[in-house]
Design goal:
By secondary structure, the chain is α+β, with helices and mostly antiparallel strands. The chain contains three helices and four strands, in the order ααββββα. The radius of gyration is 17 Å and the shape is globular. Keywords: Hydrolase.
Length: 129
């Protein structure tokens, strides 16, 4: 729900799943991807995520309001998959909470995949006798 066209109203609302659907429509060579900040290197992420597995590889857009912090973007995995992610932290301590969560999030992404690639997952064929 958007209360204004700027996205700055405290009445604006969007879900993480909606943001991920938007990300999923792009690709890792498109304008949206190429325009995002690179962790530890450029833009609003230049001083963020340094010394983490995301430094130099995670591309994302940050969102900052008085009581809100958001991070949405792409993380390339070791097996060639790309994780699209979005998370939003709201509240009085959003900045402090979000920045520590960013580090945890990236460390989790770096351990992926510990199992099968998403493209290998799915229902098994049913054999009828």
């Amino acid at each position: 729900m958007f209360a204004d066209g700027s996205g700055l109203s405290e009445d604006d609302r969007i879900s993480c799943s909606t943001l991920v659907r938007v990300l999923a429509r792009g690709d890792d060579e498109g304008a949206m991807f190429m325009g995002m900040s690179i962790a530890g290197q450029t833009g609003t992420l230049k001083s963020s995520l340094k010394g983490t597995p995301g430094e130099g590889v995670l591309r994302a857009k940050t969102g900052t309001l008085k009581k809100t912090r958001a991070l949405s973007g792409f993380f390339p995995t070791k097996n060639g998959e790309t994780i699209q992610f979005s998370f939003i932290v709201n509240g009085d301590r959003a900045k402090v909470r979000a920045e520590s969560l960013w580090d945890d999030l990236v460390r989790g992404f770096a351990t992926y995949p510990s199992g099968a690639a998403p493209s290998d997952l799915g229902p098994l064929p049913v054999e009828l006798s």
